[in-house]
Amino acid sequence: MSENSNNHVKRGLKTRHVSMIALGGSIGTGLFVASGSVISQAGPGGALVAYLLMGLMVYFLMTSLGEMATNTPISGSFAAYAGKYVDPALGFAMGWNYWFNWAITVAVDISTAALVMKFWLPHMPGWIFSAITLALILCVNALSVKSFGETEFWMSLIKVVTIFIFLAVGVLTIFGIMGGHYIGLSNFTYKQAPFVGGLPMILAVFVVAGFSFQGTELVGITAGESDNPREAVPRAIKDVFWRIILFYILAIFVIGAIIPYTSPDLLGSSATDVAISPFTIVFKRAGLAAAASVMNAVILTSVISSANSGMYASTRMLYSMAHQGFAPKSMGKTNRRGIPIAALAVTTVIALLTFITSIEGPQIYLWLVAASGLTGFIAWVGIALSHYRFRRAFIKQGHSLDELKYHATWFPVGPIITLILCILVICGQNITSFANLDWEQIGITYISVPLVLILYIGYKIKHKTHLIPLDKVDVSPSDLRDEEK
């Protein structure tokens, strides 16, 4: 393919695309399936508190990202911000950390798609479904950014519509209009409910809740290819916050009201067993016989959507790093349609090789998946740090907040709360492994932390970088999309 002489990505994402991509990125199997295990551990009240606190933290995070993205929109945003506002070494570490996370996640998602398809075709080899899924998302991402935006818009819309239907059916079931008998709020006071295990258990499931919100930062990635980021990003942040809070909180409320936390179905919740998805159980109790097939189709859509978003995010991050000098220059070249085709090809190869290891070397695959486990939270730490430094530098250099197109909420409280909670979540991933001195489990759980430190320290030593003084930080508003050449 011939290359575009400007070597920059093309804008093509509409405001509706950005809003729905950010929303769809945070609604997946974490809500549709794994939410059941959270309720079984902490009770309906504990689950609500955990998701509410995590939702508020994510809102602070998104407003921080929004303030920077509207001031300086760029594809692969937050790695660029870390290098621009904190230290180039941090930008280098954040960029490769995030690229690695999504490249591995694509492999995980195409493996999961095969497991979900076995619900209908149990005797077909799983690798066939994985190959079809990978080919599908590769084609979508290779066509144009508009094709990606449209695909994500409609797949996200399927998830949103499903939640609306679920909430309507759930409320009717609670009041006995569907399902045959009145339930009310009896399960909220059943045995130890609503708060099972008290504060320690709420903190324990807080970690699980965090994974459910992974993907909301995609709004920062899409800013670089939005037609009007200064309109699209603030609107997406506003819409996504309220929708996520309402969807998650109301959905968990309905599940907690209809299914007692002691139900063995909730205890067995896993991301690939649609038969015991709390959504499926609620639909069945309402008398909907086709619930399992419908929810399996929705979960398959969620998995493909996640893989599609992962391919886009990792490709754009690699492209952005090439323009910052953090990756080979060839990764920053685009074709006539503005697609960074070399970055897309490399990401696809890594995802494919990771998938092959799941067949040929399961232990290697498990370590690769583990290595990407905390990278989302590490990226959130980078966003909070970058925004804290950006705003301090902005004020120190004599600028007025009126100059900013969008203001983050509750600065500096927002980024500080985000930093503290993210660090708590990272440290609290597997506390019992430290108590038992289980070094293998410690390694599997926390391997991404030393990997990021190695990237950061290695770049810092090689290039002798330093923390950028606040009066030297470049906070001038600019559209770096026009400077990527």
From TrEMBL:
Primary subcellular site in the record, as a coarse category: membrane
One Pfam family linked to the record: AA_permease
Lineage, highest ranks first: Bacteria, Bacillati, Bacillota, Bacilli, Lactobacillales
Regions that span the bilayer: 20-39, 45-62, 127-145, 157-183, 195-219, 240-262, 282-307, 339-359, 365-388, 409-431, 443-459
PANTHER family: AMINO ACID PERMEASE, GENERAL AMINO-ACID PERMEASE GAP1
Name of the protein described by the UniProt record: Lysine-specific permease
Record membrane topology: Multi-pass membrane protein
GO cellular component, one term: membrane
Gene3D superfamilies associated with the record: Amino acid/polyamine transporter I
Subcellular location: Membrane
